[in-house]
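Hey Z.,

So I finally got round to the adenosine-5'-triphosphate thing we talked about over coffee. Here's the setup:
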Amino acid sequence: MGTEQPDAAPRKSEFVIEATDIVKRYGHVQALGGASLQVRPGEVLALVGDNGAGKSTLAKIICGAVAPDSGTLAFWGEPTTVTSIRHAQELGVETVYQDLALAPDLTVAENMFLGREPINPGWFGGHPARLDRRHMRAKAEEALRGIGISTLTSVDRTVRDLSGGQRQAIAVARAVMWAKAAIIMDEPTAALGTRQTGIVYDSIRSAATRGLAVIVISHDIPKMLSLADRIAIMRQGRTISNTEARQMTLTDVVTLMLGGKATEAA
Ligand SMILES: Nc1ncnc2c1ncn2[C@@H]1O[C@H](COP(=O)(O)OP(=O)(O)OP(=O)(O)O)[C@@H](O)[C@H]1O
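And the result:
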């Protein structure tokens, strides 16, 4: 769980994820026309841009949901063709989806393991194999503690009974629990109130503190300037700036998003 590198393979790059010159067309629409992005471990990278700039498409390509037409994706410097979401997960990349992919009738602990439940094998002549619920509860509690949200809800509560912010935080906790390298979040606070948004932003920061690379797509530019370490700006399918957040102002970001002069990619 957490940030150990799979197989402790030697790293060929300081970047967990490096996307270079990614192109993607949907029929006549060019969603991406040469987008690039790099993110380091322990770093929050905000991916911002106007509607239709290509942010979600780039995220979907990195998480294995969509195949690019061309371009290179490298994980720890190793060029890799990501064939599926499962493959990206094996590479250590977890995604928090807009619909959160939580099962409302299951408990928090069950949701943390959805599709990846540990099985107690049983033994010859004994009980049949069954879910290892004790392990699930303990790991789920540990994961919630790990990102500082253990007081938010019991792991035995049914997800249906949680608020939007609590659900979002559980989805983030699940991603942190399974991610070995990076987390991608597309508009994680779009439907939330101020307090709930704060909870989610705190959990994003905790994930980075634990050594994960975090890519956050957001339209909340002021918040991204304070939360993120770097801001990658997309316009018309290209990444036109990748700059330390502390070197940018709100005006800089908005000007670049809407067509002003691009800064040197850092
Ligand atoms: N499955 C699809 N089929 C056809 N066109 C698509 C598809 N997905 C995205 N597009 C188009 O690709 C372009 C980029 O879309 P994308 O969703 O990546 O942008 P975005 O920056 O995430 O926008 P938003 O902030 O509005 O979510 C848009 O013109 C969009 O209409």
